[in-house]
Amino acid sequence: MIKNKTDMKNKLKSRAGFKFPGKRADIVERLDAMLEDAINDTFEERNYDESRLSRLEVKWKRFLTSSVASKHRIYEEQERIKRLISDISHQTKTPLSNILLYSQILQEKEKDPELAPIVRNIREQSEKLDFLIRNLVKASRLESDVLALRPKRQAVGPVIEAAINTSREAAAQKGIRISFEGFGGEAYFDRKWTQEALENLLDNGIKYSPEGSEIQIRVNDYEMFTAVCITDRGIGIREEEQSRIFGRFYRSREVAEEKGLGLGLYLVREIAVKQGGYVKVKSRYGKGSTFYFYMMKEQR
């Protein structure tokens, strides 16, 4: 895709000695028109008479025609993906809800000690499948821009507190304390999806931290970014794995027994990038980890 027409024109001029007498000037003008149409997404092959073009113009014409066709193919493929995601989300919602409901009823009513573990396993696997589909749909919608993030400048403190409230029950079950002293600053972010990202980071910390430990949340204020920093006292991450943990479905062998699908941190990264920020981790194996979720302070 041609992004900078000025650079391309300057290259053409420099190669021709900055002067375009006669027919060469006409060629450059026609090339300039082609580039302008390509940038404005209005290029059409029929606008040019191939019999009057030089060999260079013919090559440009073929290239631009190919680029336009490729762009339309990509757009059509994105539309097919959007429809597929919508169908998956719609078609699986009701059956899974029914399976979860009936498995819950069975678990409450089944008294046979031999059947109880089977019913419990059905419910756990159903919940796992429901969780997998919901997160796959979220990831796919973000990747294909079906769900667009709508960042705006707003207070950071309330979204952190909302994420803490959602995670408090899971933390309480392990006796884990979440500490946050509050922050009055603002940043540029989408409230709903940023809360989702912070909840995933808190869930990650709770899951891998020992009982009775503490998760600390603080906010670092920089010139261009605001970073929410979440520190746990968990098992930590080996150095060679730190660049891989944000990949889709990546899970360390050391946590294979823990519940999870390897999508939480992947979603965190996608959300951060989609609103102009980024995420990183610092960790010492066996000593815990700190995740940094960066948000822009101003819209670019």
Notes on the protein architecture:
The chain is of the alpha+beta class. It is built from seven helices and seven strands; from the N terminus they run ααααβαββαββαββ. It has helices at residues 5-15, 22-39, 55-109, 116-143, 157-173, 191-208, 264-274; strands spanning 152-155, 177-180, 186-189, 214-221, 225-231, 278-284, 288-296. The strands form two sheets. The chain has a five-stranded mixed β-sheet, with helices on one face. It has a two-stranded antiparallel ribbon with strand order 1-3. A hairpin with a 3-residue loop joins strand 4 (214-221) and strand 5. Helix 4 (116-143) packs parallel to helix 7 and helix 5 (157-173) runs parallel beside helix 6. The longest helix has 55 residues, at 55-109. Mean pLDDT is 78; it is low at 15-21.
Major sheet: 5 strands, mixed
Radius of gyration: 27 Å
Shape: globular
> What's the tally of helices?
7
pLDDT averaged over residues: 78
Helix content: 40-55%
Number of strands: 7
Q: Which parts are unreliable, with pLDDT below 50 for 5 consecutive residues or more?
A: 15-21
Instruction: Write out the strand line-up for the largest beta sheet, numbering strands in chain order.
Output: 2-4-5-7-6
Order of helices and strands: HHHHEHEEHEEHEE
**Distance from first to last alpha carbon:** 22 Å
